[in-house]
Design brief:
By secondary structure, the chain is α/β, with parallel strands linked by helices. The protein has a domain at 3-182: TIM Barrel, CATH 3.20.20. It is built from eleven helices and ten strands. The chain has helices at residues 30-41, 63-74, 104-118, 137-149, 163-175, 204-211, 233-237, 240-256, 260-269, 284-291, 300-307, and strands at 3-5, 12-14, 17-19, 46-48, 81-86, 123-128, 153-159, 184-187, 215-218, 278-279. Strands 9-8-7-6-5-4-3-10 form an eight-stranded parallel beta sheet, covered by helices on one side. A two-stranded antiparallel sheet has the order 1-2. Helix 8 (240-256) runs antiparallel to helix 11. The longest helix has 17 residues, at 240-256. It is globular, with a radius of gyration of 19 Å.
């Protein structure tokens, strides 16, 4: 896997990010180790976790951060980036601070917990997991930069933020000579979500083309929609437009020798700004299939045809 620099940082991230949302199971490491070994052996160095991942499992609160930190130490890995997130909905297993997700106390508590679980002094890449438009971006950025000055965070990013708020936050950071958000995570794939949630929202992609801010899309294969076998994905992505795109993906896959998953991921990788698809699977064979998308080249005509233009 290739490594790509993130502008304004010293980070070099592998083309694909390893998503850890549902990977770990309490008391079980063999299956997750096999998947993570496959990713690392392919050249991967970019892991995506969060403060709240696995909280829905019995005894799972903090499990994702604890487990990836443990894996990295057991394998003696040095050149890896573990990105984690804070500022999301509270649940009954959260440490209680205040109800406001974006209060300094809440964010600092989330960072405290993540540092302890990862057993590190500094988080290389820290996302705001959600946004709350009621809170001025100045308050959020000032809190995050206080943590950067303390040495507990290196770089910051935003997850599930609209481009208008991202632009506002980064403009404020630059006006105060602070570090801007260097990456954005968003629900995005060739198939638009029925809710229009994510980067498929009109205007979003155009803004990223203009700013060239890197994007790490989650659900980049629309939860397996393009394989035609993932029935659950039909609920979120089964529209006439998406069905037509799936047919074109299948046709191009048949002609090129690539798999439908690889074609869908190659569409993302061929955008004119850095894109790091987050691959979330527990199946090493599916992971290997996805990673093969890096070798697929699409022409401008094929990219436009896949979109129906």
């Amino acid at each position: 896997m290739k490594r790509h620099p993130i502008p304004g940082t010293d980070l070099h991230l592998s083309t694909f990010c390893c998503g850890l949302g549902d990977l770990f199971t309490v008391g079980e490491t063999d299956a997750s180790d096999k998947l993570l070994d496959t990713y690392v052996e392919a050249g991967g160095n970019f892991f995506d976790t969060a403060h709240m991942y696995c909280h829905w499992l019995p005894g799972g609160n903090g499990l994702s951060e604890i487990s990836i930190g443990d894996y990295v130490r057991r394998r003696g890995l040095k050149d890896v980036i573990i990105a984690t997130k804070g500022g999301c909905g509270s649940n009954w297993r959260y440490r209680k601070v205040v109800d406001d997700l974006f209060s300094p106390g809440r964010l600092i508590a989330d960072i405290d917990d993540s540092l302890a679980r990862l057993e590190t002094d500094t988080i290389s890449l820290y996302y705001m997991h959600r946004d709350d438009p009621r809170v001025p971006v100045s308050e959020i950025m000032d809190t995050l930069h206080a943590e950067i000055r303390r040495g507990r965070l290196r770089y910051i990013a935003a997850s599930n933020w609209r481009f208008e708020r991202l632009a506002e936050a980064n403009a404020y950071a630059r006006s105060k000579n602070l570090q801007p958000f260097v990456l954005a995570e968003m629900n995005w794939s060739l198939a638009a979500h029925k809710s229009r949630f994510g980067l498929n929202t009109p205007g979003q992609v155009d803004w990223y083309r203009q700013t060239r801010l890197p994007v790490a899309p989650y659900s980049p294969t629309a939860q397996g929609f393009f394989t035609g076998t993932a029935t659950e994905s039909e609920k979120a992505f089964g529209t006439p437009e998406n069905n037509a795109r799936r047919e074109r993906v299948a046709a191009l896959a048949g002609k090129s020798g690539a798999t439908p998953t690889q074609i869908a991921l190659a569409w993302l990788l061929n955008h004119p700004f850095p894109v790091f698809p987050i691959i979330g699977t527990s199946n090493p064979d599916r992971l290997t299939d996805a990673l093969g998308a890096e070798q697929v080249t699409l022409t401008e005509q094929e990219l436009a045809w896949l979109e129906g233009h």
